[in-house]
Every structure is written in C-alpha cells, then in structure tokens.
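The instructor's notes for this session suggest beginning with a concrete chain rather than abstract definitions. Hand out the sequence below and ask the class to guess, before any prediction is shown, which regions might be ordered.
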Amino acid sequence: MSRPADRTATAPAGAALADTLLSRRGAIVVFLAFAFAYFFSALVRAVTATLAPTLTPEFGLTARDLGLLAGGYFFGFAATQLPLGNWLDRHGPKKVILAFLLIAVLGCVAFSMATSFPALLAARVLCGVGVSACLMAPLTGFRRWLTPGAQLRANSWMLMTGSFGMLASTLPVQWLVPVVGWRPLFWGLAVLTALAMAVIAWRVPGWQAAPAPTGSSKGSYAEVWRNPYFRRMTPLGFFTYGGMIAVQTLWAGPWMVRVAGYEPVASAAGLFTINLAMLVTFWTWGMLNPYLARRGVDTDRLIAWGVPWHLLVLAGIVLAGPAAGAAALALFCMSTTFVSLAQPAVGMAFPAALAGRALSAYNLVIFLGVFVMQWGIGLLVDGFGAMGWSVVASFRGAMAVFLACSAASYAWFLMGSRDNRTDPRPASP
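After discussion, reveal the predicted structure:
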C-alpha cells in the first residue's frame, strides 16, 4: 500500500498539507528509518566520555583540550544549523540527511586515522557537521507527517533512541576498546552510518516544499528570531538543556573518576546507568505527552513545574561533591528532560513552511550551549586549579557556575508574559 506522503509528492504547489499525514504503519516505518541514523549520531556524540581515559594519555590532553575535543563536535553541529533549516524547508528531510550523513562517514574515517590533537579535533568537527541533520530532519518531517500529539511522542522517542546510542557508547565501547582498539571502532561506525543511509534512501518518502506564509521572506530567519516565545525559551535551551548534554556526554565521566573516585570501568558503568535512566525517562515522556496534550497541560506549565527539581538536584551535587556519583548524575539528567519538551513546542508554534528553520534555529541555540558549556566547564576546572583549588573543589566550583546560569535562565523564562505563551497545537500551514 502506498504511503500518503508519496501520493502528495506530485501535488500542485498550492495544495493544502492536510493530505500528507502518514498512516500508522507508514509513520512507524519512517520513524524507525530515522531512528537508526540517530542512534549512531548519539553514539558518536557521547563516545568521547568513555574514550577520555584512553585518549588523554595517548595524546597528552588537558581538561581544556578534552572539553574542546568534545565541544568540537557540537561546534560543527551548530555551524550547520542555519543553512540546514533552509535546506530542510526547501529540499525535505530525505535529501538533506543523506548528504549530511556522507560527511559523517568521512568524519569517522578521519577520526580513526588521526595522529595528533589538531587532527582529532578537525575530525570531530567533521563528525558534528555530518550528523547535524539526524534529529532536525525527522522533526521537520514529523511536523508535516504526524498529528500534534504524535509529534510530541515521536520527539521524545527519538530522544529515547539517542539514549540507546549513548548506552552503546558506554559499557559496550569500554569492552570493545581493549579488544579491537578505538581506531577500528570508528571504522565500524563509518560502515554502520553508511548502512543507515541506505535504509533512509529506501524507506523515507519524498518532499514538496510547503507554500511560505503570507508576508514571509523566503529563506529568512527574521520571523523566527523575533518571535517572543522563541526568545523566551532561548536561555533554557542554551544553559539548562545544553549544560545537561555537556555533562551527560562529557563531564559525567571525569566527575565520576576525578571527584567521586571511580575506576574507568566503574565510570563506564555509571555512564551506562545515566543513559539507561534517560532512555526510560524519554520513553515515559513519549507515553505521557499525547495524554497531557489532550488534558490541556501545555509545555510552559510542565517546564515551570519541572525545572526547580533540576536546580535542586544540581545544587545537591555541588554540595555533596565526592558523594555524588552515578545515581545523582542520573537524577540530574532526568530532572532536566522537562526542558526537552520546548523543542517540539517551538516547532509547532510556527507554520509548517517555517518548521525546518524554527527547529534548526532552536537546535542551534541548544548546541551552541553544549559547546560553550563543555569547553567552559573545562576552562573553569583548569582555571580554579591554577588558583590553587583542589581537583574536587575545582569541579564543584565549575558546576556551581553552571547552576547559577541555569537558575538565571529559569528566572528569564518565568518573567515572560502570558502573551509569549503557546500551546502544543501547531500553527496553521
């Protein structure tokens, strides 16, 4: 049976988008095709936390270098977001993600062949560029292909798939590296990413650009940047959610080793626990979101309720110091997932023709935040150490700065007027 999106592929440019909803079976197939690629995107993103004990002595990395190496991925990721949004709106998810994944394959190969820190960093940036469409492409497609409740569910379950990838980057990588080495591991990732490209080319439907809203400039981000709701959500995405990803994908590992006293294998097990907790949390959000949407519980209300828990847990980690291990870090990451609901809400606050740009612009905010927070925490740790602080005190000080930034972001969110609120229903095409 042909998919509904396939039937509209040759529809007139002015046709309404109501005929593009996928059937249940079609939606599942498309979701799984994208999820396969996003799994490897998340694995590549998080693997530096597990490889940090291996790469640090081999390349003589400092905390600053390690933060820059991990952040390089997010720099490459963020650098593509603005053109990516335009390309998604114009050419559609399928063509765009296939082009970008080819770059990811080259990045994995380059990383496996690197013999110096600059080469590692350049390859890491290339990997970030290559996988930068792995979440935005499906979310842009879901904006047109799925109902609002299904969009919220699909977003959470894509993030759950990312947690699967992060799980694979912990204990499985820790077990594989002594057997095959970290360089062959990246050759394997290159091959599997190429396989994901084949699945997307086979199963994801084509695309027809939606008509632009009246009064919009073609390809412009002006309507996105000046939207009050977008601006209201920006600090939360940058500091709170970006900071959580920075901890999850890099600094959780060094915290467990250098502050809590874990051995490297125990640290990998701790990262496994953290990512398993995130997987379960995103699965739960996926189950709850359609129900909450039907009950009128909107994103703003959930964030207002949930972020204080994030702040309390983060404050507890700063105060506990060495006593805060994997369980505390898992609770911190789980408590931050309230902010993940902002991403699909931002996408649905704009017309379908602007969805790619709105989602990519907000993703740019998040991943610029990840880059700044990953590198910034490393700079703070080294800076406090240069002032004579102990390793434990330096890490606690860096996390305290993160806490202050996150608290200020929440205050900005609360200061937004009721005119800046949105609900989870999409704007009209």
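Then share the key points. The chain has a mean pLDDT of 85. The chain has one domain: 23-209+227-420.
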